Sequence to fold (191 residues):
Amino acid sequence: MAGHQLIDAHVAALARRLPAGPVDELADGLTETWQRHVAAGLAPAAAAHAAIAEFGTPDQITEAFVAESPGRRTARMLLATGPLVGACWGAALLTSDARSWPVPAPAAALFAATLLAVVATLTAAATSRHNYRRTRLGAAGGCGLIALDTTMLLTALLLAPTTAGLLLAAAPASLARIALTLRALPAALTR
Fold:
């Protein structure tokens, strides 16, 4: 569809900020709206300004897409559930005397550093307001949490001398978070 140079510039600005699929839909909508205004008697430039005013500025459109992005929602969900799952594991590790488990200090330090990196990644995705690409970090953080939860589950399964009652609460919490994350990842990776 032939459009107006103002609409083309508007779409180009959106293409630098948003995924191709939504930009294509926005381009179609802007062009159709512009054509409707031209058919109603507006000059092409005035019709372009009117169509752009109906859709909003690139900043407004980007902020709306960022606010609803699957990666941002995933990151927020994982950050919200993190303290609960972490508390379950903390209680379980304290009551099962995890300090006596044969875990090398460098492995524990690597786990802690990875956890901090995952939290920072999720925070970056969850707090993004103007950058859609940054919201995709929610998928990376989700994959990191799956790895951390799996590591905790395997470590407890292989090294815990007994399955303490609280360990039985921490494992389902991690398994539930893994399931929720796996469910959210496809959208966070592709949209």
The chain has two domains: 5-65, 70-190. Residues 70-190 form one domain.
